[in-house]
Write a structure and sequence with these properties.
The protein has 12 helices and 14 strands. It is of the alpha/beta class. Strand 10, helix 6 and strand 11 form a beta-alpha-beta unit. The longest helix has 21 residues. About 55% of the residues are buried.
């Protein structure tokens, strides 16, 4: 089924730089200067591939505008935003653990957040069926009062908070499939039953010691946070089982009116910051299942945001597969890496992977009870 899919894009998103870095470390002696691992090339190549395959012409391009102070303050503390504003004029600064940035990056972060807000508004109004926000800086690790993991402002969380404040939408679900824990939305909506936060990620990877199944929310938000930490080495079998046994049942219980999907491709095979072996076909399958849930419960309303993905050769094809699934249209281009990744040993579901999924599956009973009381 062909859908009207939006694309948030602006060239200046690719101008965000973390400063003088080499990989994950500052590029100072004895580390030779180079490029930060979260550089623009993998994401810029997504847009290049969309253009080259003709997919951009099939999408509705959304011109972003900066998020306002009021919009940002719905998800982030005033003190944190004031610090970002101050540090934006410095040659180099940090928003928190592993979140360096350079002069002007906060302006681009505000533009990214504003672009996701526009996408959410247009999807909520029915002007678009769904949307993909190809933005930088990425956002899913940013918490209410600090940045983390290359993230300054939590783009999807800001947009979700905006919908809760300005529309009659009262049930929003996050399904974060980045290989790293979706700690940002978890932190921001920890006590809010209006938002179900689900994160499927590599266990104890990043941020350190977060994302355990024991973290279920608190107060009115208790049981509305579900973590699915998977052991390293998972392929299609484990991800499919996690979706079928935990993610999709949780969404069916919650019946969201809007879905945000922080899409990172660092669970992809050959990504330098993940140890999973998902291919573009695996990401396509996840996107298709989430679109189906959105169709059943949310009138199709879904916004995906760009998060991780650090292999400049493979990441664009993974994103293309997701965007094709959202739009219900084909670019006519096959991923040349998919046969290699799909043929890798290790895609079968293993016992220790199922055990991890079973631990997360035990959370569904609590969610069922919480939904019944809300």
């Amino acid at each position: 089924m062909t859908r009207k899919t939006g694309l948030v894009w602006h060239e200046t998103f690719m101008w965000h730089q973390q400063g003088k870095y080499s990989g994950l470390l500052p590029g100072v002696y004895p580390v030779q200067p180079g490029s930060h691992v979260e550089g623009p090339e993998p994401k810029r190549r997504i847009k290049n591939l969309l253009d080259a395959t003709g997919m951009t012409a099939k999408l509705s391009v959304i011109e972003p505008r900066p998020a306002t102070d009021i919009e940002l303050e719905r998800a982030h503390s005033k003190a944190y935003l004031a610090q970002l504003a101050h540090d934006n004029a410095l040659p180099e600064a940090s928003a928190g653990f592993d979140a360096p940035f350079s002069r002007g990056s906060v302006d681009l972060a505000r533009l990214a957040a504003g672009g996701v807000i526009l996408a959410a508004e247009r999807v909520a109004s029915g002007a678009l069926d769904n949307a993909y926000a190809l933005v930088r800086p990425i956002g899913h690790h940013a918490e209410a009062a600090e940045g983390k993991g290359f993230c300054l402002i939590n783009n999807a969380a800001v947009a979700a908070a905006h919908l809760l404040a300005t529309t009659d939408i009262r049930r929003i679900a996050f399904v974060d499939v980045d290989v790293h824990h979706g700690n940002g939305a978890e932190n921001i909506f920890w006590r809010d039953p209006r938002v179900l936060t689900i994160s499927i990620h590599q266990e104890r990877w990043f941020p350190p010691d977060t994302g355990d199944v024991a973290s279920i929310g608190a107060g009115s938000g208790e049981h509305f946070n579900i973590n699915v930490p998977l052991p390293a080495g998972c392929g299609h079998g484990a991800y499919e089982a996690a979706f079928e046994q935990v993610v999709l049942p949780a969404l069916e219980l919650y019946r969201p009116e809007f879905i945000f999907v922080p899409f990172g491709y660092d669970a992809g095979a050959q990504d330098p910051l993940g140890r999973m072996i998902v291919s573009s076909n695996g990401f396509r399958a996840m996107a298709q299942r989430l679109v189906e849930v959105a169709d059943r419960h949310a009138g199709g309303r879904l916004v995906a945001t760009q998060e991780g993905g650090y292999n400049e050769s493979t990441t664009p094809f993974m994103a293309l597969a997701v965007i094709e699934a959202l739009a219900g249209q084909s670019s006519g281009v096959d991923d040349p890496y998919a046969p290699i990744m799909d043929g890798m040993f290790g895609h079968d579901l293993l016992d220790h992977q199922q055990a991890a999924i079973d631990r997360a599956k035990s959370l569904l009973a609590g969610l069922r009870d919480a939904v019944g009381k809300s």
